[in-house]
Amino acid sequence: MDKAKDFKGKFFLLFMVTIIFIFFITVRLPWTTYSAVPKPREAPKTCPFRISERTITPLNNTKHLLVSAYMDQRVKGFDIRIIGIFRRDSIQPLYCLFCCAGDLSSTTPPTTILQHSDNFGFPFATTDVMCQIPQNCNATHVSLLTQPGRVKVFNQMWLPIRNQKTKGKEEKKFQFDFTVCVSNLFGEYNNVLQFAQTLEMYRLLGVNRVVIYNTSCGPDLERLLQSYSQEGFVEMVPWPIDQYLNPSRGWLFSEHGGDVHYFGQLATLNECIYRSMDRSRYVLLNDIDEIIMPYQHNNLMSLMDMLQQQHPNTGVFLIQNHFFPKKRFEPSGRFHLPQWNKVPGVNILEHIYREIPDGHEDMPHKMIVRPRLVEQTSVHNVLKTLGERFIVPMDVCRIIHVRTSKRGSLTLQQLNEDKRLWDFQEKLIPNVDKVLRRAGLLSSEGQS
Prior knowledge:
The protein is α/β, with parallel strands linked by helices and 448 residues long. It has helices at 2-28, 192-205, 219-231, 253-256, 265-276, 300-310, 425-438, and strands at residues 50-51, 57-58, 65-71, 80-87, 95-100, 103-104, 112-115, 124-131, 139-145, 157-162, 176-185, 209-214, 234-238, 280-285, 290-294, 314-325, 353-355, 365-369, 374-377, 382-385, 388-391, 397-403, 415-417. The strands form four sheets. Strands 1, 2, 3, 4, 5, 6, 7, 8, 9 and 10 form a ten-stranded mixed β-sheet that branches. Strands 11, 12, 13, 14, 15, 16, 18, 21 and 22 form a nine-stranded mixed β-sheet that branches. Strands 17-23 form a two-stranded antiparallel sheet.
């Protein structure tokens, strides 16, 4: 009996040892199957937690707004330019914080804050914040602090740094030859026909891309914009400035009031230059109802090849604006086309009378610029440039601007006949019909 118990005890002990051994072999102890060296884990990223995907981002603990951040190493001692809209009477020291490929940098010395000189008396002005990237930092995003030192990373809003490889080398092949920057649409602007004619005229002249900053517009123009965006010719940039400030509908604070000039037009013009700096050879800065028209060349590239050869160090070409009164019509009605009768807006082909510049008044200019030679711009001239300026003679190039007359009621004898647009009518008219039809804005009745 004792032997039987002893045998059962030994058997049970052997059985338990065997079970424990198998358990350690297969589950617990990686003796031979697994390496004793633990697999290294990927270091957890500490930034950025909150990346701003908006075009306007409030800056914490300030009254300021941030627009975008760009690599800009053209100014000695700086690497980054942050474009913003700052309240001029509450500028305080700011500090750049960088996300270095997932790791947080130490805060840099105080930034250099550059207010643009044109503010037209408004409380808010376009402002550049300049800062330097710390050594050994592969910066991908940047944030601004009002106090140096420890930060609550979860509360920081980060801006992606664009134009990462731009270092002023113009030898790089550009994606586009010409980009038109339009700033900006607001209110119930619904001038569909002139909008389509202008964009199609620019396409015939060699423009590859149109960037439009849109606060709001009329329903028909919205449909046309969506169609152009889907095609890829127009890049729409949302511009909800009215959600943050009381934007002015005019250009002068003393006359129009508000927080910022003309729905933040100056900020959008500068933003568009930097947005285009790495991808477009030339940028045209003008309004949507203006066409920068060459008069001795059939396209913009031929014009600029000539001007650039004659003025190789020039980065800013100033084009004089000429007004075509929209209440003065070409008498024959040749281009009063039936298919456009129900399309809202101005038909620019019907307006051939141009105001003669008053010798006592400076005509406003718009610009064609080489973006890599521009630091800051205003509406009618650049504020800071690395190149020279040149005023293009009006017989070479001028702006066709169909609008309300600036000089009141003028007789035909006081106007010049200018049919330059008619040189393109054979291609322009069917192209306009095509884009209006594609957007569902051209009725079948009376189509050409």
